[in-house]
């Protein structure tokens, strides 16, 4: 038996409960992991609260992240005792996820834990930090170097945003953090932001084109915020889009793309190819200031994950929530 959060469906509604679950119910897979830490993400919170149809199969254990130790394996790439982590691949949607004390998954989804991180630190980074690194890699691949100009990070006080600010500033970029929580300005400057702007400057319907400012952007908000960021990006700039905290719509025009040569780069962390995952985690081990993780994250127990989900959805959580599944 192991403890886990189980989402079950009753008619048209679903409910999440912390339960004791029999090992025999674990899904198919060639590696069984004894989970040490998971994390609570935006998608996990949608699943737990039922605010969005994230879960595709019931019953479901939510949790897009996990880090732990291999307990059993028939996969030659993983041995009993190996420290591993996993992000995405349908966890918490179509396959039982990380908000539990045990998981059985496909070994091809796993990544060996980089030696630079503990299991807890890996989950302080989690899908959010790995996604932030994918955004940084996309900016670099499109030639956006620090000398090209400012990078704006929207939703900067959240999980993806906070890690993006820390990464970009360490790499030498001048980072402007945009947030709906100006009370977090000191926190964001502590991560390396040179300037903090209120989200209100981006959240209202804007013009097809605005004054050129950004060489690049990391956007986790979507909707009018993304549209306004694109409209104010400099000629040849690159906007990476990886979230929809403000909405799935994109009320923009083609003007920035055909008149300024702006590139809108979509970032998907869930089904991202293994080679890109390995590169992202290798770069995180090299380029993330680990000392910033204490400021970016704080811990909760598995028993607190359900009650924490509404606060995360409401934008009241700073940075990352690391879940200790043993408490």
UniProtKB/TrEMBL annotation:
Q: Where is the Enoyl reductase (ER) domain?
A: 11-323
Q: TM segments? A: none
> Which InterPro entries has this protein been placed in?
Acrylyl-CoA_reductase_AcuI (IPR014188), ADH-like_C (IPR013149), ADH-like_N (IPR013154), ER (IPR020843), GroES-like_sf (IPR011032), NAD(P)-bd_dom_sf (IPR036291), Zn-ADH-like_protein (IPR051397)
Gene Ontology molecular function, alphabetical: acryloyl-CoA reductase (NADPH) activity
Q: Which Gene3D superfamilies match?
A: Medium-chain alcohol dehydrogenases, catalytic domain, NAD(P)-binding Rossmann-like Domain
Protein name listed in UniProt: Putative oxidoreductase, Zn-dependent and NAD(P)-binding
Native species: Candidatus Sulfuritelmatomonas gaucii
């Amino acid at each position: 038996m192991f403890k886990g959060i189980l989402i079950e469906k009753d008619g048209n509604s679903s409910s999440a409960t912390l339960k004791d679950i029999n090992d025999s119910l674990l899904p198919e897979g060639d590696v069984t992991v004894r989970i040490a830490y998971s994390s609570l993400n935006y998608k996990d919170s949608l699943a737990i609260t039922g605010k969005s149809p994230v879960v595709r199969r019931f019953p479901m254990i939510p949790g897009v992240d996990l880090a732990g130790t291999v307990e059993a394996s028939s996969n030659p790439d993983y041995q009993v005792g190996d420290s591993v982590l996993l992000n995405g691949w349908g966890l918490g949607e179509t396959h039982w996820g990380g908000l539990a004390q045990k998981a059985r998954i496909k070994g091809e989804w796993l990544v060996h834990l980089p030696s630079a991180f503990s299991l807890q630190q890996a989950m302080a980074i989690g899908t959010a930090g790995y996604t932030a690194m994918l955004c940084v890699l996309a900016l670099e691949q499109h030639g956006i170097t620090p000398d090209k100009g400012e990078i704006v990070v929207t939703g900067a006080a959240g999980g993806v945003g906070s890690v993006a600010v820390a990464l970009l500033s360490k790499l030498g970029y001048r980072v402007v953090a945009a947030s709906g929580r100006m009370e977090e300005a000191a926190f964001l400057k502590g991560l390396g932001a040179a300037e903090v702007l209120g989200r209100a400057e981006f959240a209202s319907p804007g013009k097809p084109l605005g004054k050129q400012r950004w060489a690049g952007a990391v956007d986790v908000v979507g909707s009018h915020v993304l549209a306004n960021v694109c409209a104010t990006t400099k000629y040849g700039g690159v906007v990476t889009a990886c979230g929809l905290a403000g909405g799935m719509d994109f009320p923009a025009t083609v003007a920035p793309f055909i008149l300024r040569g702006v590139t809108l780069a979509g970032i998907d962390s869930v089904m991202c190819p293994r080679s890109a995952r390995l590169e992202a985690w290798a770069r995180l081990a090299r380029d993330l200031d680990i000392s910033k993780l204490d400021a970016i994250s704080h811990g909760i127990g598995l028993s607190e994950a359900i009650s924490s989900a509404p606060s995360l959805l409401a934008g009241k959580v700073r940075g990352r929530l690391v879940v200790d599944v043993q408490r």
